[in-house]
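Query structure, 162 tokens:
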């Protein structure tokens, strides 16, 4: 399993997930840079994603929805703040409605995804900093650790396919 560690800290309002992949940094980066590959790993296995917009550049947006087994749509968006290919991706992550408008009643977070070369391939660190402890607690109660772990663990299969 790629996920090696999960940490949450209410004092710093952070959720951090660490994963390791047996592939070079550039290949792992491509999973996020290519919307069709991103669709294959974004969201838990039973909630496939559809990426609608994908502008992976500062000021760009990535919009998507996940479809539940009951055909419910759950929308979200990223607002990109910094991109350092293939090492680092920074964005604001939001829940959205079907028009991809931010849902203010749901917690947002600032995310930093970093990718570093290690002897066996790539170590990815996924850090989310929430706006409040209530926001962090809300996503934890929603099962974000289980959902994110399931999503990230799909990356190995995608990498193995080429």
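Result returned for the query:
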């Amino acid at each position: 399993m790629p996920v090696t560690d999960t940490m949450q800290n209410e004092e710093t309002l952070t959720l951090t997930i660490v994963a390791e992949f047996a592939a070079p940094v550039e290949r792992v980066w491509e999973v996020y840079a290519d919307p069709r590959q991103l669709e294959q790993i974004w969201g838990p296995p039973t909630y496939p994603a559809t990426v609608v917009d994908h502008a992976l550049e500062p000021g760009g947006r990535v919009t998507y929805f996940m479809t539940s087994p009951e055909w419910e749509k759950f929308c979200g968006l990223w607002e990109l703040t910094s991109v350092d290919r293939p090492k680092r991706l920074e964005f604001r992550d939001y829940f959205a409605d079907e028009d991809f408008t931010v849902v203010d009643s749901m917690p947002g977070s600032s995310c930093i995804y970093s990718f570093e070369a290690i002897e066996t391939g790539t170590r990815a660190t996924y850090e989310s900093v929430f706006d409040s402890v209530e926001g962090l607690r809300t996503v934890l109660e929603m099962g974000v650790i289980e959902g994110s772990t399931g999503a990230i663990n799909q990356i190995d299969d995608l990498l193995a396919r080429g």
